[in-house]
From TrEMBL:
Keyword annotations: ATP-binding, Nucleotide-binding
InterPro entries, per database record: Depp_CoAkinase (IPR001977), P-loop_NTPase (IPR027417), Rossmann-like_a/b/a_fold (IPR014729)
Gene from which this protein is expressed: Coasy
Organism expressing this protein natively: Anhinga anhinga
NCBIfam families listed in its UniProt record: dephospho-CoA kinase (TIGR00152)
GO biological process, one term: coenzyme A biosynthetic process
Entries under SUPFAM superfamilies matching the protein: P-loop containing nucleoside triphosphate hydrolases
Any one Pfam family match given in the protein's UniProt record, by short name: CoaE
Presence of the UniProt keyword Membrane in the record: no
Protein name: COASY synthase
The keyword ATP-binding is annotated on this UniProt entry: yes
Length: 230
């Protein structure tokens, strides 16, 4: 349920930062950093633990740990609750506390690593794919890139184009799904076609096996056109 969980830093990096913090705070401190492979970790099995540091929002987790310890025949841990630091610079969409979720929000739009140099890839044109759900901002970003001189390829428009009479997928789609998907003027009724494939994985695959290769071919043609235009 984490916000932008794809941008969570790797475990090794997070552990290294924790190690650096602990050594900064008190170089003589003895500590173990243990990977957690379940929600409880060693807190419900280690007889030597005496205290668990929690915040207001994780106190219930601490209470769940103590319940498990009692079930395992171990004494309860003292729960020491700390106040979380407030972030004075958080935006309206970010959390009030200092939070890695807010950090991930701020990473949006930044280059996480330089473009990969692959000798097998041509230097131009540079191809960027925009994906995301409805309302995620694809159209806005595409317009911004267009203003900067990018050649825009709209896969949705190509998806419509393959269905039109004379289009590359028209004959195959009609042959696969029957003349009942046609309007009186011979165009494909996308609502009727959608009703045939919606919720039916086999029919949906039959449709995408026809349509997607044609869209991909058209995209490649347009990428070639963009390259020719420089």
């Amino acid at each position: 349920d984490k916000v932008l969980m794809e941008l969570i830093e790797p475990y090794e990096l997070r552990a290294a930062k924790l190690r650096e913090f602990l050594e900064d705070v008190k170089p003589s401190l003895r500590y173990d950093i243990v990977p957690l492979v379940d929600p409880y970790g060693p807190s419900v099995t280690d007889p030597d633990l005496q205290c668990l540091v929690v915040s207001e929002e994780t106190r219930r987790g601490g209470e769940a740990v103590n319940k498990k310890r009692l079930e395992n025949g171990l004494p309860e841990l003292a729960l020491y609750e700390i106040l979380l630091m407030k972030d004075p610079d958080h935006s309206q969409n970010e959390e009030e506390k200092i939070s890695s979720s807010s950090l991930r929000q701020r990473l949006l739009g930044t280059l996480l690593r330089p473009p990969r140099q692959d000798p097998a890839l041509p230097s131009r044109p540079y191809v960027i794919g925009l994906t995301g759900g409805t309302g995620s901002g694809k159209t806005s970003i595409a317009k911004l890139l267009g203003h900067l001189g990018a050649f825009l390829i709209d896969a949705d428009k190509l998806g419509h184009a393959v269905y039109v009479p004379g289009g590359p997928a028209y004959e195959q789609v009609v042959a696969a799904f029957g003349a009942e998907i046609l309007n009186e003027d011979g165009t494909i009724n996308r609502k009727v076609l959608g009703a045939k494939v919606f919720g039916n994985q086999e029919r949906m695959k039959s449709l995408t096996d026809i349509v997607w290769p044609e869209i991909a071919r058209m995209v490649k043609e347009q990428i070639g056109e963009a390259g020719a235009q420089g």
